[in-house]
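Dear colleague,

Thank you for sharing your sequence with our group. We've completed the structure prediction you requested, and as agreed, I am returning the results in plain text so they can be pasted directly into your records. Please verify that the sequence below matches your submission; if there's any discrepancy, let me know and we will rerun it promptly.
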Amino acid sequence: MGSGYYQTGEQRAERVNDLFAAIAPRYDLINDLQSFGLHRWWKRRLLQLAAVKPGGSALDLCCGTGDVAFALAAAGARTTGVDFSAPMLAVAEARKAKAGGLDGLVFLQGDALRLPFPDAHFDVVTISYGLRNLASVEAGLREMWRVLKPGGRLLVLDFGKPDNAVWRAAYFTYLRLAVPVFGRIFCRNAAAYAYILESLQHYPAQRGVDGMLRALGAPDPRIVSFLGGMMSINVAVKSPG
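Please find the predicted structure tokens below.
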């Protein structure tokens, strides 16, 4: 049975915006619980693969409460975090104010499909657990590729689809039965977290994203998988010049 949150096209963006407005205050806590803290390790791996250079420029799309954006800034990159959810950005701004010393980090409310940046503007572009939620996965990747500099890196961290049928069935069962419980307990909204599985079923996942990156002209993009493909990072480097 569907969660009621998944919609096609622009309607999906509106519903997801409502979802994140509801869960923003407990978002980080629930991420820790439902992933057993592993999301922090996966994000650290994303940062390693990003190979950020001090003084470089980075864009973190669908930045949420700012985990990846803070890490990019701490690595020395001039970092812009963009999200369409004002409540999630409010949490990110509060974290920034509390941390202090992050003058090179800014947060903006915006649409990942209509970025307010010129072509070839960033050395690194990242998106974590956000591509799946966009009104169009392909349009989102095209826009990220547009603002990426030649020689720059694009990285996508998201839920994957294991190739092994048994592993995939166990994984989908966890997402269907266990994850909504966290939403019910901490947000009084089980449907919001049931959305994860529903969106994943419509998402092309790591292999589909790899094909889209190749179609954009990425030479030899990589897929880095975790837990048999339950989570994955797609990595693409834009050809220089």
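Summary note from our side: The first helix runs from residue 9 to 23.

Kind regards,
the structure core
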